[in-house]
Write a structure and sequence with these properties.
This protein is mainly alpha-helical. The chain has 4 helices and 3 strands; from the N terminus they run H-E-H-H-E-E-H. The N and C termini lie far apart (45 Å).
Length: 119
């Protein structure tokens, strides 16, 4: 993945962005990703398992995610579960997309589209 431009993959879909965010701070298995996204979105985004695993496959194929090797997982963890984590390239893509979205929110604030928050 060396030399690939993270900007070439932008914009990410909402689904891909939420999956990458769920893995930004820790490796997780599929159900852990579903729970993280559900909690972070206050229940507004509930991922279906089929949709999640199809997206994970695409993200792995693009080099954004990888499976955590069994040797790096806790010994007492269910060996049937696959834990996923961001690759270095995945972190770059997540950062680039987050910066892109922050710029958009900045424009919305300048245009007074966002509600004014109390000081």
């Amino acid at each position: 993945m060396n030399g690939r431009d993270p900007l070439a993959l932008l914009p990410l879909t909402h689904l891909a962005y939420h999956i990458l965010l769920a893995l930004a701070d820790d490796a997780r298995h599929g159900y852990g990703i579903i729970k993280e996204v559900l909690e972070r979105t206050d229940g507004e985004m509930e991922l279906e398992t089929g949709t999640l695993y199809a997206a994970i496959k695409r993200l792995r194929d693009e080099g954004l995610l990888e499976v955590v090797p069994r040797s790096e997982r806790p010994a007492d963890e269910d060996s049937r579960r696959r834990n996923y984590r961001l690759t270095a390239f995945g972190k770059k893509v997540l950062s680039a997309e987050s910066q892109r979205l922050a710029r958009l929110v900045g424009v919305a604030a300048e245009k007074r589209v966002l509600p004014i928050s109390p000081a």
